[in-house]
Amino acid sequence: MTSPIDALVRQLDGKADESYDARAELIRIGADAIPAVIDGLPSLGAFGRLTAIEVFEEVGDPRCGPALIGLLDSDHPTVREWAAMALASLEIEGAVEPLLRAHRACLERATPPDWSEPVGIRWALTELGARTPVVPPLTARLRVTTAAGTPGWPSARFAGIVDDLADHAQVILYSQFRQVDAGRAYGVSGPGLNWELDWTAPWEHLVEESRTWSLLEASEAPVGDDILVAPTWIDRTDLHPER
Fold first, then answer.
1. For the CA atoms of the chain, what is the radius of gyration?
2. How much is the pTM?
3. Does 171 fall in a domain?
4. Residues 117 and 144 in one domain
């Protein structure tokens, strides 16, 4: 006979409202629900697995660690991304080596480094102390953090930050803009240039291309005392770990 918790796990793959209700109930049940969610993962589709990851994160039970590590081998990139980020959020012991393998797999698939999966995996590695971003002096000095813990840089200094990063051989992938109000940060529209880089080009070329596009974006960016810019950038070692 199917238990009520098993039925809720199967419901994670249902329609949006049904899945949301099941998610909420499993989170309410808490740690007692985790074994059933783990056991039910193989029978869930991508949507159900993503919702299960949300349950794991909300409950915060480390027993889900091996299951999350297993999801790094999923055939669905968003499942892999969310699993990676959950491993870091939950500080799962033993997650670094699987995450490094997941990162290498992204490189082998030639997944563009500005796609969400490699961005999420790099974030996870950084949070777990296995990756140290290069932060040049000016960029480090200008960094601010809102009361909500959101990092950013004054948009009025964006051009200087772009040059600082490029001068230190960093490639800017994209930038996001936020407006700070009462210590909280809200997304605001930027120029939206959406450039694409040729990742087969030499690193030095990528650095200068990203500098050119980012400086153009800086010239059109929203500016104000309450506007922050949050660039995302990578180092050569993110594409060539052996160097």
1. 20
2. 0.92
3. yes
4. no
- Asked if residue 149 and residue 121 are part of one domain, the reply reads no
Residue 132 resides in a domain:
no
Instruction: Say yes or no: 65 and 176 in one domain.
Output: no
- Angstrom distance (rounded) from CA 48 to CA 60: 18
Q: Which residues contact 162 (CB under 8 A, 6 or more apart)?
A: 172, 211, 214, 215, 218, 231
| Integer Cα distance of 35 and 166 in angstroms | 48
Q: Using CA atoms, how far apart are residues 239 and 243, in angstroms rounded to an integer?
A: 9
Residues 174 and 61 in one domain: no
In terms of domains, do 90 and 146 share one?
Answer: no
pLDDT in tens, 8-59: 999 999 898 999 999 999 999 999 999 999 999 999 999 999 999 999 999 9
Q: 3-state DSSP call for residue 163? A: helix
Contact predicate 171/233, CB 8 Å:
yes
